[in-house]
Amino acid sequence: MKPIIVANWKMQFTSEKTLETTKKLLELFKEEKIDPQKIEIIICPSFAALPQAAQLLKNKGIKLGAQDCFWEEKGAFTGEASPSDLKEMGADYVILGHSERRENLAETDEMIHKKIKAALLAKLIPILCVGETFDERQKGVKDYKIINQVTKALEGTEIKPGEQIIVAYEPVWVIGSGQAVAPEEAHYTAKVIEQRIIDLIGFSLTKEASSFIYGGSVDEKNIKDFVTGEISGALVGSASLDPDQFVKLIKSIL
Ligand code: PGA
Question: Which residues contact 148 (CB under 8 A, 6 or more apart)?
Fold first, then answer.
């Protein structure tokens, strides 16, 4: 299985800056001979920049992801984005349940569960984010919290043959901090999550339909320690914003 690197550009760029950064990345990928056959690179810009980014990335082997979607396909839902609209714009992936949305927009596990179902229906691959806060960690409920988030998001979700989900473990307290968790911790958590997914969707499906990635202050120096064994890739925020730095990060696991 090829490594998966997801660039989460959050609300950091205007559309113009997204285009400039995407162009620069494509130039660097060419220069550095980064082969998309060997690595799944997924760029997640803002909703507004998706169509133009899709134009640039067309036939380049680099995938596009959205940062969220709504749980209904169509209707009177002012301000929301429908999964099939995102698919039509060129997205193949969608980040769901990011801690910034859970915190700032009061997204609940129930909402995330509905979004996962809607994303799968629209043939988007959900990237489900789970992770504990510092407080939860101090209280000793980290694993409980994560198992609970995975369960609530996926319980009762039918994963059909050919469908896929990615689960990203993102300890909330290390996101954007410049200090990742110890890699052993992420590897241990991968096992905890894998066990829960096996219990929820079955062993055979788990192996072919789910991947596990780590996110939280991943950079070009530490990525190698994470992306190995049961961890297939990384969800990268800050270190994906500068094209030179992002290319270095990618090269360090190729
Ligand atoms: P970070 O962000 O790499 O800046 O910690 C990761 C994320 O929020 O997905």
Answer: 109
**What residue ranges of the chain have pLDDT lower than 70?**
none
State in Å: Cα 236 to ligand 1 middle: 5
Catalytic residue among 98, 100, 113, 194, which?
98
Q: Give residue-wise pLDDT tens across range 155-191.
A: 999 888 889 999 999 999 999 999 999 999 999 999 9
Domains of the chain, earliest start first? 4-251 (3.20.20.70)
Q: CA-CA distance, 192 to 22, in Å (whole number)?
A: 35
Establish whether residue 65 lines the binding site of ligand 1, counting it when its CB lies within 6 angstroms of any ligand atom. Answer: no
Contacts of 173 (CB under 8 A, 6+ apart): 132, 133, 134, 137
88 catalytic residue (yes or no): no
Pocket test for ligand 1, best of 223, 236, 242 (most atoms within 8 A of CB): 236
What pLDDT score was predicted for residue 208? 81
Give per-residue pLDDT as tens, 99-122. 999 999 999 999 999 999 999 999
The whole-number pLDDT of residue 186 equals: 98
DSSP 153-192: HHTT----TT--EEEEE--GGGTTTS-PPPHHHHHHHHHH
Nearest CA to ligand 1 atom 9: 237
Q: What does the DSSP 8-state code read for residue 223?
A: H
Pairing type for strands 210-215 and 233-236 reads: parallel
